[in-house]
Amino acid sequence: METIGHTTCEVLDVIPARVIVRQRIDETVKCPNGCMIVSAPVPSAIVERGKLGDTLIVETVADKYIEHQPVERQCTRFRRAGVPIALQTLGRGVSAAIELLMPVASLNAEMTRGPGLLGTDATGVSSLDPKVSEGIRTGAM
Fold first, then answer.
1. Closest CA to 71 of 45, 47, 93, 40
2. In angstroms, how far is CA 141 from the centroid of its own chain?
């Protein structure tokens, strides 16, 4: 048989998230005379000296508030993946991230509620109206 062509088929698939361990090596130096020891400053993080990385905490916050997945269920998911994370540890990470975001949320609330008018898009909203022939009118907020 002779090949006369090929067809392409696209299939959606997923690569499950992986939890990795990153190591940071902090250098400590001393002067040749031994009179002073200095360490490099530790980079800032959502939870200072915490076990959880910033990306893991941000993913957890997003899953909690966007996907409505409780922190307890996320701990179960991590445990099934072979990474046991205590509920208290993950909860403290979420709490610390929320504290960091509070000034942004407060400013957002102030800017949207301060002028007295709240701007929205033109998403249609059905409402009952006996004056129209079908009894339902579409309006916008």
1. 93
2. 29
Query: How far are the Cα atoms of 46, 88, 90, 127, 132 from residue 51, in angstroms, in the given order?
Result: 11, 12, 10, 52, 62
Q: What are the tens digits of pLDDT across the range 75-120? A: 999 999 899 999 999 999 999 999 999 999 999 888 887 777 766 7
pLDDT at 118: 66
Instruction: Indicate yes or no: pTM above 0.85.
Output: no
Q: How confident is the model at residue 141 (pLDDT cuts 50, 70, 90)?
A: low
Q: Which two tokens stand for residue 5?
A: 């062509």
Question: How far is residue 116's CA from residue 131's CA, in Å, rounded to a whole number?
Answer: 32
CB 117 within 8 A of CB 105: no
Query: Cα-flanking dihedrals φ and ψ of residue 38, to 5°?
Result: -130, 140
CA–CA separation, 98 and 58 (whole Å): 10
Domain ranges of the chain: 48-110
